[in-house]
Automatic annotation (TrEMBL):
Residues 9-112 form the TRNA-binding domain. NCBIfam families: PRK10089.1-1 (NF007492). The keyword RNA-binding applies. One of its GO terms (molecular function) is tRNA binding. The keyword Phosphoprotein does not apply. The lineage of its organism: Bacteria, Pseudomonadati, Pseudomonadota, Gammaproteobacteria, Aeromonadales. This is tRNA-binding protein. Gene3D superfamilies: Nucleic acid-binding proteins. PROSITE patterns: TRBD. Keywords: RNA-binding, tRNA-binding. Signal peptide: none annotated.
Length: 112
């Protein structure tokens, strides 16, 4: 079983609707994309995501996604990753499904 956290700790997670603006294959990794996402801020956020086996660039481009926006930025394979796309994934990682709004929403709309 996973570690149990208090609801107050969970409430610190900031999730927003984002729109995928750009998707490029990571030049140094077979399974990674570098993705630019509009989350309603001054500039797009960049993430590095392992969705190559599950989604084509064309499927991701222009799509609305749920984004975890208040993570501490990190580097993945030399690229800055400032946020995280939320997905449901099987334990063996053979399937991954992006969490997406059912209806169109403006980038930056908070998910509560």
């Amino acid at each position: 079983m996973s570690e149990v956290i208090e609801f107050a700790e969970f409430k610190r997670v900031e999730m927003k609707v984002g729109k995928v603006l750009e998707v490029v294959r990571h030049p140094g990794a077979d399974k990674l994309y570098i993705v630019q996402i509009d989350v309603g801020g001054e500039r797009p956020l960049q993430t590095v995501t392992s969705l190559v086996p599950h989604y084509s660039e064309a499927e991701l481009l222009g799509s609305q996604v749920v984004v975890l926006t208040n993570l501490k930025p990190t580097r993945m394979r030399g690229e800055r990753s400032e946020c995280m796309l939320l997905c449901a994934e099987t334990p063996d990682e053979s399937q991954s499904v992006l969490l997406q709004p059912r209806v169109p929403m403006a980038p930056g709309t908070p998910i509560v």
